[in-house]
Design goal:
Blueprint (H helix, E strand, L loop, with lengths): L1 H29 L4 H13 L2 H8 L3 H15 L4 E4 L2 E4 L1 H25 L7 E7 L1 H8 L3 H7 L3 E7 L13 E4 L8 E9 L1 E6 H7 L10 E3 L7 H9 L6 E3 L2 H9 L5 E4 L2 H4 L3 E4 L9 E8 L6 H22 L1
Parallel strand pairs: 3-4, 3-5, 8-9
Antiparallel strand pairs: 1-2, 5-12, 6-12, 7-10, 7-11
Length: 323
């Protein structure tokens, strides 16, 4: 029994020695980590793919692989299991994630602090919004913005997925819901009434819009339920003449007189030949539009300039709609 105890104590002692050596090795190597290493690690973790991480960070795939390999060498273990379908995090990666996220938050806080000292409105501002808003509202007015703010470069990220402003995926977002995060500030931009829309050309070719035999266009977004789609499914008889995942294409089908459809009445401001019709059934409730930014960035000169410009732009549209 004594011999067993001695042998077990030896094993425990050896394990503790190895653990201390590993801890010392890890501490020495972790001290060499950079923010770029952590940024690459989190991009891979979030995307589940080296190629998607490279695309998201705007770098070459070889750069991601090289930095990831360097990070794993410093840690002395693999962070991801490679497979043909992508990469899967190891237990070390999952344990490493919490501290990496904390480092990301601290780095972004330092960025916001530095940006707050910007002397004049200049540089890039990223706006997250849906493509019809970019095409029909912002694009016709960008020349005026550039004349007013020649040193600000706008980047319009059009997507129906919600950008995470707290992680710096965009500087400003225009959303159809009011965010509840305490780190974000919001301002109502507009209330967009919906209606059945058709152009003069459509009426000449096919008659007034009809729920029974009209040429309807329907915008259906994969994985996203919209009030327009629900209304169409409930009230329009038969299959739509055209179904698309693009609201711009659906809008163009209406503007060009090829179809009738449900859309915001603001589209009539884009083309006076398009008007709203009463088909005997009330349209869905109006859409609420919200301007959103991170509270720490709101007063940065370039972001404040774009924020104010966007609000003025929609204020102008509201005035046009009531004339």
């Amino acid at each position: 029994m004594l011999l067993c105890k001695i042998r077990w104590s030896t094993v425990v002692f050896a394990f503790e020695v190895c653990s201390c050596a590993w801890h010392g090795y890890l501490v020495r190597n972790v001290q060499d980590l950079s923010w770029e290493d952590i940024r690459v690690f989190l991009a891979c973790l979030d995307s589940g793919s080296v190629s998607r991480a490279a695309s998201g960070l705007g770098v070459q795939q070889s750069t991601i692989s090289r930095r990831l390999g360097t990070l794993e060498s410093r840690l002395g273990a693999s962070l991801f299991v490679r497979a043909s379908t992508g990469i899967r995090p190891t237990e070390l990666a999952l344990a490493f994630e919490e501290d990496a996220r904390a480092m990301q938050e601290h780095f972004q806080a330092l960025q916001r602090l530095a940006l707050g000292n910007e002397p004049a409105p200049e540089g890039k501002v990223r706006i997250s919004l849906v493509d019809p808003m970019a095409v029909y509202i912002l694009l016709p007015r960008l020349a005026g913005f550039s004349a007013r703010y020649p040193n600000i470069h706008l980047e319009l990220n059009t997507s129906y997925q919600t950008s995470d402003l707290t992680r710096g995926e965009a500087d400003i977002a225009i959303r159809f819901f009011r965010p509840t995060s305490g780190d974000l500030i919001t301002r109502r931009l507009a209330t967009l009434p919906l209606a059945v829309l058709a152009s003069e050309q459509y009426i000449n070719d096919f008659g007034a819009p009809s729920l029974v035999n009209g040429r309807w266009v329907s915008a259906v977004l994969p994985g996203i339920s919209t009030p327009e789609e629900a209304w169409m499914n409930a009230h329009v008889e038969g299959a739509p003449w055209l179904t698309t995942s693009s609201y711009v294409l659906a809008s163009e089908a209406i503007l060009q007189g090829r179809a009738t459809g449900l859309g915001p009445t603001s589209l009539t401001l884009h083309d006076s030949r398009v008007r709203a019709f009463d088909v005997g059934i009330a349209p869905p409730e109006p859409l609420e539009l919200w301007l959103t930014a991170h509270s720490a960035l709101r007063k940065v000169p370039r972001i404040a300039a774009v924020w104010d410009w966007l609000y003025e732009l929609f204020e102008e549209l509201r005035d046009m709609a009531t004339d």
